[in-house]
Fold:
Amino acid sequence: MKLMSKDDNFFFLLGSLLVLFFMSAMVHQFKDDAQDYVLALIILCMSTSIVGVHRKQTFYRSWYAVMITVAVISGVFSLFDDYDLSLVTLFSLLFFVLAQTYSALKQVMMPTKVTLNQIVGSICVYLLFGLSFAFIYLIQLELFEAPFNGLEAKPWLDNLFDVIYFSFITLTTVGYGDISPALAIPRFFVFLESITGSFYLAIMVASLVSSHLAQKDA
Structure:
């Protein structure tokens, strides 16, 4: 059996993202008051996702560790009524996901050799785009009054899965209409995400196909 190596790093990231999305749905559907569970799940998945980062990349590991620590501390404080550090938590989570996206993009764009890890990586980048915009929408829910139709004003952990759902139906340009932006700034990010999703798929497919053809001709 082939052992997991640094060359299979995207499998860790894909696994953690899928677990996060599915378990968030489970908690949202079957547990009414589960903010602490959701926060613990996010931190666990973030920590698991950096397992695949090569040990020699000390900068990335240190940067991820700092953001995870900030998210844990601010998130725990936000669970108490006397403190509201939601924006600190959300910005640290957003920066973490953006750093993961940038790191993954550097590895999957125009690869010299198309491997299963590269294909999994391209899927991870697509999922990270959706998660990044989800945190952007959650930040807007904290900053603005009623920025989205179909989303109530409540703690961001309670809105997490609904916002993830909205983000991905926007990224895929499905747009069911059950949640929609009500203000100009949210609308800007919504159409930006739609454009990002469409162009990413076209560019990534073309990149993988051209790399595969070049690999066959070599």
Remarks:
- The radius of gyration is 18 Å.
